[in-house]
């Protein structure tokens, strides 16, 4: 007699086993990526292997021309706002008149020096740069303001000698633009000095010349439109700061030769230009490339060394290049470098 508690037996044939499919961890990770989830790193990664990288859309806020332009604008407006209440129309050689442009340049330098550190969320680096940018901005502002005044005086005398006697004449705008271009040198120099980079200083100088020159050239036309001295000065000086910051960012991007573009992670869309012979990467806030919110990243996780035309990556912690673990590697343009949940495309300008 059969036992009533017996249950039907489950039979698995060899044919059933042949049809079965095992879903691998890498396939699971790929499915997550295909679903549109952000892949910063370790969850979708195979054990001991690189993360599945999903290219992320960069934000305009991480573009150098944007955040440097905003920093220059805010710095110039702060410097102008401090002295404007003491400014007297049509009266020269008063202390507000003498200190106006140096004050603007000092706070512009502070903004330009802080901008990148704020974007990278490094409070320690920002505080160090602020301590350098304020005094350097004041000193260089005073020096180049004096040079600019001499240049403006000489230029004005020259155009007066050929019959240009009014600020409505474009020749007068050009003279002011040339004089203000000299002022822009201060911003560019300090921008590079606070980062201890000679190449960055050169790019900053060129950007400062172009941006401040543009700002100076439109200062007088703006005053004709606004018809109010304080408003025209605020708009004009604000444009000076904005144009200087934007120009520095554009010049940097146009002239860079080797850089890392962040493809995934909290800073996706930002580019790190490789200015220095050795660039440090890690969780230490004073690293040249500071990687935050990832406990797997060491204080100095890796460094990039420039040797002539070659670029070498040295890893102290886990680093993957194009999916392969590396300790030392000569990078090629297009390589994908993965550190924790961050992914970078190494790129270099082709040399003729």
Q: How are the SSEs ordered, and which strands pair?
A:
Blueprint lengths: L13 H6 L5 H10 L29 H20 L11 H25 L3 H39 L8 H24 L4 H20 L1 H8 L2 H27 L2 E7 L6 E3 L4 E5 L6 E2 L11 E6 L2 E6 L4 E2 L2 E2 L2 E3 L5 E4 L2 E7 L4
Parallel strand pairs: 3-4
Antiparallel strand pairs: 1-2, 1-11, 3-5, 5-6, 6-9, 7-8, 7-10, 10-11
Helix pairs in contact: 3-4, 3-9, 4-5, 4-6, 5-6, 6-7, 7-9, 8-9
Task: Write a brief caption for the model.
The protein is α+β, with helices and mostly antiparallel strands and 352 residues long. It has helices spanning 14-19, 25-34, 64-83, 95-119, 123-161, 170-193, 198-217, 219-226, 229-255, and strands spanning 258-264, 271-273, 278-282, 289-290, 302-307, 310-315, 320-321, 324-325, 328-330, 336-339, 342-348. The protein is elongated.
Provide an overview of this structure.
This protein is of the alpha+beta class and 352 residues long. It is 51% helix and 13% strand. The chain has 9 helices and 11 strands. It has helices at 14-19, 25-34, 64-83, 95-119, 123-161, 170-193, 198-217, 219-226, 229-255; strands at 258-264, 271-273, 278-282, 289-290, 302-307, 310-315, 320-321, 324-325, 328-330, 336-339, 342-348. Strands 2-1-11-10-7-8 form a 6-stranded antiparallel beta sheet, with no helix packed on it. Strands 4-3-5-6-9 form a 5-stranded mixed beta sheet, with no helix packed on it. Helix 4 crosses helix 6. It is elongated and about 70 Å long. 41% of the residues are buried.
């Amino acid at each position: 007699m059969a036992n009533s508690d017996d249950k039907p037996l489950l039979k698995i044939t060899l044919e059933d086993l042949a049809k079965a499919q095992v879903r691998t961890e890498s396939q699971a990770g790929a499915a997550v990526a295909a679903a549109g989830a952000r892949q910063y790193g370790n969850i979708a990664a195979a054990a001991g292997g690189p993360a599945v990288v999903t290219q992320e859309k960069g934000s305009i806020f991480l573009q150098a021309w944007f955040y440097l332009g905003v920093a220059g604008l805010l710095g110039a407006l702060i410097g102008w706002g401090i002295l404007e209440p003491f400014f007297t129309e049509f009266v020269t050689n008063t202390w507000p008149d003498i200190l106006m442009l140096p004050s603007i340049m000092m706070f512009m330098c502070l903004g330009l020096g802080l901008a990148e550190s704020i974007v990278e969320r490094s409070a320690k680096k920002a505080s160090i740069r602020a301590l350098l940018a304020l005094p350097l901005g004041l000193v260089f502002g005073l020096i180049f303001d004096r040079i600019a005044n001499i240049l403006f005086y000489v230029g004005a005398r020259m155009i007066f000698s050929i019959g240009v006697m009014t600020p409505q004449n474009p020749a007068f705008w050009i003279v002011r633009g040339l004089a203000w271009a000299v002022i822009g040198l201060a911003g560019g120099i300090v921008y590079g000095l606070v980062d201890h980079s000679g190449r960055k200083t050169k790019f900053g100088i060129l950007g400062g010349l172009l941006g401040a020159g543009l700002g100076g050239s439109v200062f007088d036309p703006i005053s004709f439109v606004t018809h109010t001295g304080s408003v025209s000065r605020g708009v004009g000086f604000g444009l000076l700061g904005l144009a200087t910051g934007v120009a520095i960012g554009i010049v940097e991007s146009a002239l860079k030769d080797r850089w890392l573009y962040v493809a995934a992670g909290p800073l996706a869309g930002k580019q790190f230009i490789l200015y220095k012979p050795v660039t440090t990467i890690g969780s230490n806030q004073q690293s040249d490339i500071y990687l935050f919110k990832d406990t797997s990243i060491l204080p100095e996780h890796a460094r990039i060394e420039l040797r002539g035309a070659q670029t070498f990556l040295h890893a102290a912690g886990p680093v993957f290049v194009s999916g392969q673990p590396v300790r030392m590697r000569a990078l090629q343009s297009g390589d994908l470098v993965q550190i924790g949940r961050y992914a970078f495309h190494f790129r270099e300008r082709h040399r003729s």
